[in-house]
Every structure is written in structure tokens, then in C-alpha cells.
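Fold these two proteins, one after the other.
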Amino acid sequence: MSVPVLDLANDPALRGSQQGEALRADIEHNIALYLDVFASLGLDIEELTEQALCWLPHLRRQDAEFSAEVEGIAEGAARPLAEVVMLNVRYELIIGMLARRGRAPAGVDGCTSFGLLAHRSDTGTPVLGQNWDWMPGARTYVARVRRTGGPDFLGHAEAGTGAATQQGVNEHGIGVVINALMAAGDSRHPYQRPFRLRVRDILSATTLGQAIKAVSGSNRTVSMNFLIGHRLDEIVDIEAGPDTAACLLPADGILTHANHFARLDIDSNALREWPSTVYRGPRLDRLLRRHATLDRKHLHECLADPLLCARADPDTPGSTATLNAILIDLERRSVAVTAGPPDTHEFDEHLLDP
């Protein structure tokens, strides 16, 4: 079994409807999964629908292409628009709705990410990668998108969300992987560009500076870590809080990150809510540094490490698991994805220009 791969159209509404039709069952599955997740958190489904629709005019104002794609997904999947908007802003919704109740999010995306400069890669090309940890059962897809009004891109995302809105690379060799972060001020800037749209902004960049500004250029509704790379052998990590940000650079060609602020001095409950974050980044760093240069086999072994490849705890409601591992070669414009946890699944590689 492999993650579905779609070649999608330039027109955003058609692109969305193509996904909606092709992945209808997976989209229905993800909608049901998230409705259960919100219910398990004690959140009202009617309020959820209202809050999702409140995002729609902001998405239309912020990016007409992205909002048209989201609306196309709903049409193609024959689902209410509010449900598909929910999928695309579910992180912002969870954080915001819990914050209004004075609660912290105990279970959101985990993820352990890394970047390698070219001299640490056996191919001599810079590489990004990560384990993506989330609710067991969430279904994803890979999309290859050709555009006339912006760079072509290739990436990975959840079914029902805009193409390549989690991890990806564009035709200019600019790529990104992400990690959830948590700050006390999350949700104090409502209806800012959601993190998925910022990933798309990065993949729409033609320069590394534009990619960085996609994160740093405005306040954020939720905190997020963006590990961004360029094919000309540059990697920068941006820890983005609600209205401040800090950058980290590779040390001897390697950079890793988990789910707490390593550079930005900010009030956060991450260590209390996500205790594994304290060791995942440093552990991945040590595993990577065992090798002077790393090939695909080495990277696979590192991501499959039992302290990095998570299994859901059946006795802990809302616990997350490693669902996919992702490797991105910025020079080759390739995205490799496992269809399950990397300790039991192999990578399938996809090229922007096959």
C-alpha cells in the first residue's frame, strides 16, 4: 500500500475538485475522525461548524487561490464546505476553542524534523525530513501541481486539505517541513494566515528570503516551527510564536527540531503537555552525527528509532503516533513518503519532474 499520488490542475477550483473526487472516501474518513477528536475534547460540534465558517471570509481575503481550492475540494467530495474548511484550519480551531476554555492542547501534531546540508548527504544535495506524528487513522496524499501563476510544487498533506500544505518542495528547490509549537499567547491574533497557507506561501516563493517572510511577515494565530531549505545548500529553522520569531542554523551541516522552543524565549507549556519533545530533537541529532555522510538507509534507520517513531498509547485518549516519514531532496525536487511508521514501511519516492 502506498500514499495516493495526484497530478493536479493549474486552476485552483479544478485542482480542489479533482482531489475531492479522487479522495472522496479518505476525505469523508478524515472528517469523521476530526469530528470525533473535537467531541473527545469536549468541544461542541455546532460551535465548531460556526467557527470554521468564520474563517472562510479571511481565507478568501488572504489568498483567493487557496480558498478556491478549498471550496473545490468540498464540491468534488460532495461535503459541506464547513467540514472542509475545518480540515484546513483544524489546528487553529483546536487551539482557539481550547484557549477560550482555558485549556491547553494535550494532543496535536508531534513531529521530529531535520535538515542536512549537502556535505552531510551522500548525494551531495541538501535534504529535509521528518516523522509526522498525529492522530492514528488520519489519511494523507501526495500532490504534484503545475501552475502558470506561481512555481510548480510537490508535497504531502492530509486528504481534504490544500495540496502540499504540510511538507513539500517547489521548482526552485525551496522546501519545508513543520513542527507544532505551543505558546501562552496562541490565539491572541485570530484569523491570521493559517499554518497550511504559510506552507503554501513558502512553496510559492522564488527566493529563500520570500520563503522566510512567509512566516515572519505577519503575526500568527498559532505557534509553529518551519524548517526551510534551499537547493543552493542553505537551511534555516524558524521558531514562530504568536508575534515573535527566532532562527536556528545548522551546526556542522545538521539541524534538528522537535516541539518546544529551543531558541525563542517565550512562555510555553510544551514540556508539560508533550514531554517527549525534550529528547527527540537531541536524540535525532546524535543519531545523524554517527555518520560523516548519510544515505537513504541511514536516514530511514534514524527515523525508525524506537524513541522517535511513536506508537499510540491505548490507555491515553488522544495520544498520537508516527503516521508517515518524509524525506525531501531539494536539488532533485523529490519527496519520499512512507505509507505508515518508518519502522515497518519503506519510502516511496516521487519527483516533481518524473
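Now the second one:
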Amino acid sequence: MNYIKLITVYVLSILYIVIGITHFTNPDFFIPLVPPSLIYLEELVFISGFVEVVMGVMLFFKKSRKLGAIITIILLFAVFPANIYLYLSETPRKILDISKNQALFRLPFQVPLIIIAYWHSMEKSSKRFSFFVLLCLYQQLFIL
């Protein structure tokens, strides 16, 4: 089970780094997701991208993995309102070309990501919990 945990943390680390970099290379994709009630939309996109790159790097290395996983959990909670906004507002859905049902379908997918990050914050976990996390990971990778 340890090798699976190691592989998943490396894959997630790389994904978070790539997504974080995308915040800088294509901010126009992310800006419509930020609720307009917030100010400095582009800056918030850059900040969240920077945090994603940093947490991706932290997840990659064992010494910083626990803190990286905790930061991941915090970020996932912090960006959840953007998913709610996407569901409630027609404007970002039109820009991203997704339906209201697709936006609704996205909402619960933060939970498995939080569970996976929590798993990576733990030095040791039971086989039962690890199996549950692998089911969450499967759902994230193959059902989306």
C-alpha cells in the first residue's frame, strides 16, 4: 500500500504544480470562476496558482508533505465557494461552456480531494482507510 500512496502523492503533486502554473499562463480561464463580489480577481487567481505550485512542491518531498497536505486541505476549502458560484451563476457557466447540471455535478468532488490530502498528511493509516482513499482517487481520476 505504501508504494501506491507514494505514486499517488507524486501524481497529485505534479497535477497541482501544473494546474498552479496554468493560473499564470491562462488566468482568463480561472477569473470567471471567482465570485465578482470579491475584489482583485486576477490577483486572487495568481495567489491561488502560487499556493497550488508551492503545495505541489511541498507534497513532493517527504519532509514537507504533511504541511503541504494541510495547505491543500485549506486551499480546497477556500476555493469551494468558486464551485458554488459556478453553479449559481450563468455567466461563468457560459464562459466555460458547461451546464448547470455539470456545475452541480462538480460540487461534491472537492470532498474526495480533501480526503486524499488528509491521507497524505498521515504518516500511517489503516488498510481500510487507505482502501477507501483509493476508491476516492479512482473516482477522481476515472469518473470525471
